[in-house]
Amino acid sequence: MYSNRVPFSTTMTTLNLSGPVAPAPPGVSPSFSDPPNEAVLAYSTSTLSLICVTFFTWFRFFVKMHIVGTLHVEDYIIPFAWLAAIGQIVPGYMIYEFAPIIHDWDLPLYKFSKYLLYFRLGAIFYNISILLIKIAMLIQVLRVFVPRGSQSKTYYIVHFLIWSTSLYYVINFFAMVFTCNPIHKAWEPWVEGKCLNMSAIAITTGVINLLGDVTILAVCQRVIWKVVKIDRKQRVQLSAVFLAGIAPCVFSVFCLYYNTLQVVDSHDFLHNSALMSLACYGEIASGMFVLFLPVLPRFFSWFKTRPAWTRLTHSSTALESGNVGVTEEKKDRKVRSLWHISYTIRENVTRCWGTHPAKGDQAPRIEQAGKVKGKSGEDFGSMGSMESTVGSECFFSEEIIRTRGTT
């Protein structure tokens, strides 16, 4: 959602490259050698984002690969989102070498060109990363809340979001690469030529981005509270897990705010754009957090069965894993497809479903084989990707026990 609105419009014949990007306010003197800056904020935020994105990505991959024993479509997408996130953050470090959150009047124009180039590279990788993260989230939502073969409201909403988001960001990618004619005018704004209105495109992207995040959050909460048949306590706990989606929404708001501020207050482009970049780092990290959070219960369930933990707690037996997802003895079982969702259920099914489950299309049948099936008999099986424990008595996977009803 980065824009590229520069604080001046001039030509090469009237330009002094040794002058500041914009005039200083009254009573303020430009300082090119040692300008006031916020380097600590810049480096600490970027580094923290880099650490979080890396940890969230590869922790999830470790759990899915070595504990759950199954990878699904989104698990192959997330590492590419991580690479794009690195591509977003690295140009920021390159900018901080000469402009660690400073003001327009403290940077000479000959350095401003380099700033715009690195800023644009970061923006391109940001758009790639945010697209891949959203697609991974949506695919996960599709597998969690939509039974295979179902064409419910949730199915159509999620598919609409997947394809419309993909189309928009692909168009946006080419718009950012070919913003200007000639292309290098994008980072050398004093060169003769024409450019698209990237400020309008960036604000539009920010709005679409925020609406997409809110829609994903709303879809998950609607299914949890209106469709899934579990008791209130378990519903609250499951809802809390998916409420982590609020974090990307918050950072999206900050990104949109600073992006809009660039347009309203174009006399301090450097400062506003730098703060917007930090907010966008947080948006990427929070998106990875949303994808990471659901595997935590499965990890802790696995960890508590390790000998070291058993000795530490003086337990004579390993903690029961709840038979959720792909257990150790099932790791070698062939997965039917990357989209397959399978899970097993505790022997005492009434802990999850009660003694009198709902009737009709929304009531799953518990077969002797331990599989949950819809009224027509389709296998919903366990995703194995996000293993989450809902309450102390009933274990669900990412991958909650779902109903066949219209969602």
Give the H and E element order.
Answer: HHHHEEHHHHHHHEEEE
- Number of helices, where a helix is a run of at least 4 consecutive DSSP H or I residues: 11
Cα-based radius of gyration, to the nearest Å:
25 Å
Beta-strand residue percentage: under 5%
CATH superfamily descriptor of one domain: Rhodopsin 7-helix transmembrane proteins
Q: How does this model look, in words?
A:
- It holds the Pfam family Fung_rhodopsin.
- Residues 60-299 form the Rhodopsin domain.
- Keywords: Membrane, Transmembrane, Transmembrane helix.
- The chain is mainly alpha-helical.
- It has a domain at 36-294: Rhopdopsin 7-helix transmembrane proteins, CATH 1.20.1070.10.
- It is built from 11 helices and 6 strands.
- The strands form 3 sheets. A two-stranded antiparallel sheet has the order 1-2.
- Strand 5 and strand 6 form a beta hairpin.
- Helix 3 (109-145) packs antiparallel against helix 4, helix 4 packs antiparallel against helix 5 and helix 5 runs antiparallel to helix 7.
- The longest helix has 37 residues, at 109-145.
- The radius of gyration is 25 Å and the shape is elongated.
- It starts with 38 loop residues before the first helix and ends in a 10-residue tail after the last strand.
